[in-house]
Amino acid sequence: MSVPKINLLSFSGSVRTLHLGWVAFFISFFVWFNHAPLMASIREALNLSDQQVKTLLILNVALTIPARIIIGILVDRFGPRIMYSLLLAISSVLCFFFAIADSFEQMALARFLLGFVGAGFVIGIRLISEWFPAKQVGLAEGIYGGWGNFGSAGAALTLPTIALMFGGADGWRYALALTGVIALVYSGIFYLMARDTPKGSTYFKPKKMGAMEVTSKGDMVLYIIMNIPMYATLALLTWKLSPANLSLLSADISTGIYIALVILFAYNVYKIIHVNSEALSQPIPEIHRYKFKQVAVLNLAYLVTFGSELAVVSMLPLFFKDTFNLSLVQAGLLASGFAFMNLAARPGGGLISDHFGRKKTLTILLLGLAVGYFAMSQINSSWPLTVAVITTMACSFFVQAGEGAVFAMVPLIKRRLTGQIAGMTGAYGNVGGVLFLTVLSFVDASIFFLVIAGSAVVVLGITQLLDEPAGQIAEIMPDGTVQMIDVA
Q1: Using an 8 Å Cβ cutoff, are 334 and 320 in contact?
Q2: Using CB atoms within 10 A of its CB, is residue 74 exposed (0-12), middle (13-18) or buried (19+)?
Q3: Per-residue pLDDT, 328
Q4: How far apart are CA 199 and CA 266, in angstroms?
Q5: What is the reported pLDDT for 290?
Q6: Which of 40-44, 298-302, 308-312, 336-340 shows the lowest mean pLDDT across its residues?
Q7: H helical segments located in 101-150
Q8: Complete DSSP assignment for 63-103
């Protein structure tokens, strides 16, 4: 059966919601990465050291990991319309704070808090899943993710010019503040125009807040285990700022953060058990069950897809510059192709997944990703530059199409938990970015690419544990009746 087409030239019904969603995501990423293209001006204005610049870059991603979990819980409870509007409005205030900061300490706090806006991605995943059927959801989520993710490239392409247009020593401040104005204005537009569901549809909510509902004791154990890497990654970020590495946190503060992470993990385990204890005290009817292994495998798949993208876009300009003796401008333009591929590759991955099957598509794309990174590990100065760029672009297609394939499947696991599932899977993308960048700090680029390729091969094997979505999933209506939702 053919996949229904989405008329992107329309601005009504589900397509209107798609456009509202990807623009909101674009703006959230535009805000999240507004500092990167202006960092040279920021460094000069505040006389920042190299270590302080590195700290700002680390702080920008630190809060996104827990934020995506928290936002996932909140969007399932309160709905995308309220949550996206609030997120954009709050992030606008933080933009203004960052723009007027006149010390490293103020900038560090603002940048840390702005990491929260990176969780906006999760909200749209739930929104789009409400408006598109299973046969269209992969393409729709791919368009949302791919076009929205281009917000970081949009910031890089426009903000330096905007800063020059304002002119003067504070041009960068006005450019940053403008991103806050855009976020604030659009938060109002989104609230007025967006709706959580089509007219007459029910927005299914979790029975309890605080942790994801699971449907077996084995799944609860796996859920707890899958939380460990997220806390370990936050501990790793703390280590990078501690006296053992960048020495930008004192030993006492570092120790305090480690203790806080242990306490938070223990509380998280308590909430998981508390939320699920009553339901698991008696057998759950088969019709209401889902397999948490589906979530776990998609988490790992997103770790090697989006996680590797985060890491590679951070190092690729310098890699091209050093390998081929290019100027920074030339290297930046060539490396930007990796991000530009998002516009087509991520929707393409979703479309292929809709048409040829979720598991098969993800398997093929992960295999291509592994081969692509292996090829990139062989790039050296003897390669023709054109061949190196083509190899990089080909690899980036599999990376971003793989991201699209992951989130083509996320909304098909359990409708009322889609925000929380998307939040956890999205957080694993950040986990992957931190892990791969940490590897890069110890090895050269060739080994770095090989590590990603090897990780992809491992995840490729694990992906074979996925079950292809089939039939229907059940959700309980407010009046107690059961609604069946097609997932195939």
Answers
A1: yes
A2: buried
A3: 66
A4: 42
A5: 94
A6: 336-340
A7: 104-114, 120-131, 134-149
A8: THHHHHHHHHHHHHHH-HHHHHHHHHHHHHHHHHHHHH--S
pTM: 0.91
- Which amino acid does the sequence have at 318? L
Q: Write out the H or E segment, with its range, that includes residue 475.
A: strand 472-476
The pLDDT tens digits for 46-99 are 998 888 887 888 888 888 999 999 999 999 999 999 999 999 999 999 999 999
- Going 461 to 465 to 471 to 475, the CA torsion angle's sign is negative
Query: C-alpha angle with apex 210: 204 to 213, nearest 5 degrees?
Result: 55
Confidence (pLDDT) at 1:
42
Report phi then psi at 471, rounded to 5: 75, -125
The pLDDT confidence band at residue 4, using thresholds 50, 70 and 90, is low
Domains, the chain, ranges and CATH? 8-202 (1.20.1250.20), 289-488 (1.20.1250.20)
**Between the CA of residue 186 and those of 9, 66, 104, what are the distances in Å?**
21, 25, 29
Instruction: Please report which helix (H) or strand (E) contains residue 283, including its range.
Output: none
d(CA 388, CA 265): 44
Output the six-digit token pair for 29.
Answer: 């990423």
